[in-house]
């Protein structure tokens, strides 16, 4: 699966190096290294954590609501109290299987949970329940299309594995955040998030630049949203990306030293952080300082638009994994997997290919497939056959005369379906019969004003128009309204 | 009937206790038993139930008698870390129920001791560890909840080796418990407090936990019945984890019947423990055939395998002869006893210590001083962890955490943890084969009877070696019943020795049936320690 995209990837890398660079805020560092950048190839892999939108946590009955008061959704199990035991929420398995299938993975019909052990105040048990050597899904891939403005092109990125694990709590830093120095005063722990189920998705190191990585992450977001297993919200941390970046001179087969980047809160920061990091590493190489690239975790600083050292890795951490004895093995039955397979919704890639086959432009295809709500064919049909047809009939215009383009209609429908606006607001009332009814109502409720008007005080037409508009909650088409109002006012005079 | 069994000397002269009579209890609940030192043990639970329902006594009277008994015995034994302060109130509630003619549960008025690594909402739960000193759990363990639901009364929390790690109860952070048969000896461990309390009649039955023999070995040392159920039979929810894949909550009683009644109450699936079994729980009490109905060969046709590897070098002669006496007794009851060999038996001990230490190193990580328990103030995170844990854990626990951390470390995992798991598979298989050919297997519980306090404290390997008979059963996850079968020389009146009966998974019923018949027909042995016998003698006057 990796080989299928390697040649196209290379060309895309070159044409793309210019693109994001013009987009990213100008950085002195990147200037003057463009001539070096083409001599190097970047190798990028991504670990994505997706927080599952199950009703309760992975191993206890606590609900999780983002933004709740600290430590209001905790119990003996997720607090790691003595004697408490985890019991698996079966939805976690269901969601993992869904994602595994959606990412074209092989499922492990017999997998298990393991304990990953380390001490940290946000980890109540002193170990994280995770999956180590037998992830529930592995060896998959994801297909996507790069945005047209970045040169376009189809990509297939390998998925190494998908595994289930639990989230940790959060440290609340007060004061200056130097919590390690003055621990007891400044450090507090919020365990609301502890035990919330996650799926960790590890990609193959198949990406070659920031845009590819950002698009990979965006596709993961689309997939989890289409599947309904996560809200995929990066700001809330429901979807977190840690990227690994290394570079090597083109033609070299061994990988360079990889650097991990954290604190990426949007797709654009994924893009910019990676391109910054590539430039940084290329610069070091070109200055003969390649060996000062060390294995470390770097933090993306959004304000400064650069990566800085967070911690250097001192060898490999030893997490002392061993099988979690409190949980039985995870055994998938064929029928169970089949039933999930059969219930999978149309996924973004299938939708894009379908639209493409319908003859839509790639730009429209990508837009329409971007959101699961963005292209509800049935709703679109309703709009076209209903309100839009009525408008065309009324205005005696053809569909070609309407300025509404497919993308705007899709946006409108998405906004309504997503609840951003109500269906009523979405509609300007263009049905003459409906407006006529409202005009009649206003006229019959204001007999005095009507008399005045008919007595010659025609200036108060504006008053009637205002009342009708109010009745329609501001949605009556003003042209239609005035036309009908005038007809009515003058009808019997 | 059994000339091979050594009789306990009857002299009580050296018992340093002068106990008040406990009339309400002993005249009603134990009168029949106390009349005759050689009559078989009767169910205290059933006797009490009859007495309560016939209004011959009340739960309050019983509780009062136990309180006065505790005040006399506890200064010598130190079985308990906490005594319930709601004991009388709980008893009064039961009496009120009975007065009103309401149904009462099978444990109505029964005073139950609970090992202190089992969480209780109304009393502290320390696990015997300084790091949890004064810790109060916000919930009852499932086993405790079930005891309460069946109208049992918690009398207190019993002493143990810290977090269950030890075989003598000397590794408790708080106190050393004495053996009721000889106050200079250990009660065994780690459930030493629960065993001593039942043996000394400080409570009627008690809950313990068994990871590598922690119910069975103290049962043997203290001369009481101890039952380690099949792994998964009893919910572990609320049991402070030592080694999760081996831990099981078990029962102590002075008769097989009482142990079985308690097991029935606490058994069954629990939605809070994913490793608890969905298997149906049979009514164990149906196994307790009345002695009058017992025919001459009540166990005719039962195939018993005597595990050869448990009677080899290193086992005291006294223990060997007690076990061969027990085997003869089983033969007299109609069983066919043959020697069986479990070739991987000797591998069990190292495998056990690797797996148990590995799991414990992980399970004890939560005691970090951050959220609960004793925290040593520090300005820096690692110092907080290090100091809290260094001051909170005793040396035995620290040693096992270190061993387990080592065994799970990168580069050692395959050589230790993984190989130990392979051994575990072999042991399971060999037990299964042996139990395909036999109804039950028998063995000693420990190579010796109770030894002196301090004797093995500085020789952990010698102490660990004492677990050889029991750890294999945990590795295989099987049920085992220990019941007193004889005595060896030692102490003022001799020291009890237990017989271990091992059954197939989830076949506790068979063990209880065989055990009940065994104890009802074992003549000439009365397993009442001097500390109680003295009291009984006094109450007879």
Automatic annotation (TrEMBL), chain A:
Pfam families named among the record's database cross-references: GatB_N (PF02934), GatB_Yqey (PF02637)
Name of the protein in its database record: Glutamyl-tRNA(Gln) amidotransferase subunit B, chloroplastic/mitochondrial
HAMAP family: GatB
Quaternary structure and partners: Subunit of the heterotrimeric GatCAB amidotransferase (AdT) complex, composed of A, B and C subunits.
Biased composition (Low complexity): 1-18
Family classification: Belongs to the GatB/GatE family. GatB subfamily.
Keywords from the named record: ATP-binding, Chloroplast, Ligase, Mitochondrion, Nucleotide-binding, Plastid, Protein biosynthesis
Ranges for region Disordered: 1-31
EC number assigned by the record: 6.3.5.-
Organism: Populus deltoides (Eastern poplar)
TrEMBL record, chain B:
Residues of the Amidase domain: 62-512
Residue numbers annotated as active site: 115, 190, 214
GO CC terms: chloroplast stroma; glutamyl-tRNA(Gln) amidotransferase complex; mitochondrion
Alphabetically ordered keywords of this record: ATP-binding, Chloroplast, Ligase, Mitochondrion, Nucleotide-binding, Plastid, Protein biosynthesis
GO BP of this protein: glutaminyl-tRNAGln biosynthesis via transamidation; mitochondrial translation
Tagged with keyword Mitochondrion: yes
EC numbers, comma separated: 6.3.5.7
Taxonomy, superkingdom: Eukaryota
Assembly and binders: Subunit of the heterotrimeric GatCAB amidotransferase (AdT) complex, composed of A, B and C subunits.
Extra information: This protein may be expected to contain an N-terminal transit peptide but none has been predicted.
Function: Allows the formation of correctly charged Gln-tRNA(Gln) through the transamidation of misacylated Glu-tRNA(Gln) in chloroplasts and mitochondria. The reaction takes place in the presence of glutamine and ATP through an activated gamma-phospho-Glu-tRNA(Gln).
Protein name, per record: Glutamyl-tRNA(Gln) amidotransferase subunit A, chloroplastic/mitochondrial
Originating gene: GATA
């Amino acid at each position: 699966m990796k080989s299928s995209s390697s040649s196209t990837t290379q060309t895309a890398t070159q044409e793309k190096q210019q693109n994001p660079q013009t987009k990213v805020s100008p950085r002195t560092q990147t200037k003057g290294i463009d001539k070096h950048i083409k001599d190097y190839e970047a190798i990028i892999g991504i670990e994505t954590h997706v927080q599952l939108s199950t009703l309760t946590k992975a191993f206890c009955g606590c609900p999780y609501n983002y933004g709740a008061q600290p430590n209001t959704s905790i119990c003996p199990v997720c607090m790691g109290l003595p004697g408490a035991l985890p019991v698996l929420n079966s939805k976690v398995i269901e969601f993992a299987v869904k994602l595994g299938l959606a990412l074209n993975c092989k499922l492990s019909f017999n997998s298990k949970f393991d304990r990953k052990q380390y001490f940290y105040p946000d980890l109540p048990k002193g170990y994280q329940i995770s999956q180590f050597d037998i992830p529930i899904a592995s060896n998959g891939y994801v297909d996507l299309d790069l945005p047209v403005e970045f040169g376009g092109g189809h990509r297939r990125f390998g998925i190494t594995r998908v595994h289930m694990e639990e989230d940790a709590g959060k440290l609340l830093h007060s004061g200056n955040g130097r919590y390690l120095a003055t621990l007891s005063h400044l450090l507090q722990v919020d365990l609301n998030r502890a035990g919330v189920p996650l799926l960790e998705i590890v990609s193959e190191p198949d990406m070659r630049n920031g845009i590819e990585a950002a698009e990979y992450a965006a596709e993961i977001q689309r997939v989890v949203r289409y599947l309904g297993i996560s809200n995929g919200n990066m700001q809330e941390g429901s979807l977190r990306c840690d990227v690994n970046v290394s570079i090597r001179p083109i033609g070299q087969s061994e990988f360079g030293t990889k650097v991990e980047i954290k604190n990426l809160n949007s797709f654009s920061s994924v893009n910019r952080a990676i391109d910054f990091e590539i430039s940084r590493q290329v610069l070091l190489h070109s200055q003969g300082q390649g060996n000062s690239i060390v294995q470390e975790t770097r933090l993306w600083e959004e304000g400064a638009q650069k990566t800085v050292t967070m911690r250097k890795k001192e060898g490999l951490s030893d997490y002392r994994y061993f099988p979690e004895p409190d949980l039985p093995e995870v055994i998938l039955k064929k029928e169970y997997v089949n039933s999930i397979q059969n219930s999978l919704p149309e996924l973004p890639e299938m939708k894009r290919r379908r639209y493409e086959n319908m003859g839509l432009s790639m730009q429209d295809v990508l837009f329409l497939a971007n959101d699961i709500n963005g292209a509800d064919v049935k709703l679109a049909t309703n709009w076209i056959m209903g309100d839009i047809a009525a408008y065309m009939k009324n205005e005696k215009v053809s569909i070609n005369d309407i300025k509404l383009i497919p993308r705007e209609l899709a946006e409108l429908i998405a906004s309504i379906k997503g609840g951003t606006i109500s269906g009523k607001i979405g509609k300007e009332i263009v049905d003459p019969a409906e407006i006529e009814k409202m005009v009649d109502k206003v006229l019959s409720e204001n007999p005095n004003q009507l008399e005045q008007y008919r007595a010659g005080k025609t200036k108060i037409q504006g008053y009637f128009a205002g009342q009708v508009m109010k009745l329609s909650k501001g949605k009556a088409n003003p042209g239609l309204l005035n036309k009908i109002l005038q007809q009515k006012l003058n009808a019997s005079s | 009937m059994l000339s091979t069994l050594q009789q306990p000397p009857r002299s009580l002269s050296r018992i340093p206790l002068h106990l008040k009579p406990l009339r309400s209890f002993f005249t009603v609940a134990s009168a029949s038993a106390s009349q005759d030192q050689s009559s078989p043990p009767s169910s205290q639970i059933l006797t009490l139930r009859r007495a309560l329902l016939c209004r011959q006594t009340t739960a309050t009277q019983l509780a009062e008698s136990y309180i006065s008994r505790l005040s006399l015995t506890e200064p010598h034994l130190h079985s308990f870390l906490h005594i319930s302060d709601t004991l009388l109130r709980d008893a009064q509630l039961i009496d009120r129920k009975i007065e009103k003619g309401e149904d009462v549960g099978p444990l109505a008025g029964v005073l139950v001791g609970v090992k202190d690594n089992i969480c209780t909402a109304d009393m502290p739960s320390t696990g015997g560890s300084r790091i949890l000193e004064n810790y109060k759990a916000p919930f009852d363990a499932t086993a405790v909840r079930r005891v309460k639901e069946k109208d049992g009364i918690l009398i207190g929390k019993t002493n143990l080796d810290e977090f269950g790690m030890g075989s003598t109860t000397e590794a408790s952070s708080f106190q050393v418990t004495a053996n009721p048969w000889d106050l200079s000896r250990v009660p065994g461990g780690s459930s030493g407090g629960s065993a001593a309390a039942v043996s000394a009649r400080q409570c009627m039955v008690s809950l313990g936990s068994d990871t590598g023999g922690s119910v069975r070995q103290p049962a043997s040392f203290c001369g009481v019945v101890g039952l380690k159920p099949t792994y998964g039979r009893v919910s572990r929810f609320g049991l402070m984890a030592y080694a999760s894949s081996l831990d099981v909550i078990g029962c102590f009683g002075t008769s097989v019947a009482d142990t079985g009644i308690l097991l029935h109450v606490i058994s069954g699936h629990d939605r809070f423990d994913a490793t608890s079994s969905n298997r149906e729980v049979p009514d164990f009490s149906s196994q307790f055939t009345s002695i009058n109905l017992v025919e001459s060969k009540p166990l005719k046709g039962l195939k018993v395998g005597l595990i050869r590897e448990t009677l080899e070098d290193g086992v005291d002669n006294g223990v060997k002869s007690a076990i061969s006496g027990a085997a003869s007794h089983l033969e007299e009851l109609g069983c066919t006893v043959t020697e069986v060999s479990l070739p991987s038996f000797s591998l069990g001990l190292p495998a056990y210590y690797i797996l148990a230490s590995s799991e414990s190193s992980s399970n004890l990580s939560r005691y970090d001083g951050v959220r609960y328990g004793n925290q040593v103030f520090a300005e820096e995170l690692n110092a907080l962890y290090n100091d809290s844990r260094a001051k909170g854990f005793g040396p035995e626990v620290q040693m096992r955490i270190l061993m387990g951390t080592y065994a799970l470390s990168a580069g050692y995992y395959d050589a230790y943890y993984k190989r130990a798991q392979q051994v575990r598979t072999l042991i399971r298989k060999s037990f299964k084969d042996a139990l395909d050919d036999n109804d039950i297997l028998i063995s000693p519980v420990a190579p010796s009877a109770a030894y002196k306090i301090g004797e093995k404290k500085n020789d952990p390997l010698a102490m660990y070696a004492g677990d050889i008979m029991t750890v294999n059963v945990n590795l295989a996850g099987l049920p085992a019943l220990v019941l007193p079968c004889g005595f060896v020389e030692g102490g003022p009146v001799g020291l009890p020795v237990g017989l271990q009966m091992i059954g197939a998974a989830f076949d506790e019923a068979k063990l209880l049936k065989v055990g009940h018949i065994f104890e009802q027909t074992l003549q000439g042995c009365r397993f009442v320690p001097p500390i109680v016998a003295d009291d009984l003698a006094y109450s007879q006057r």
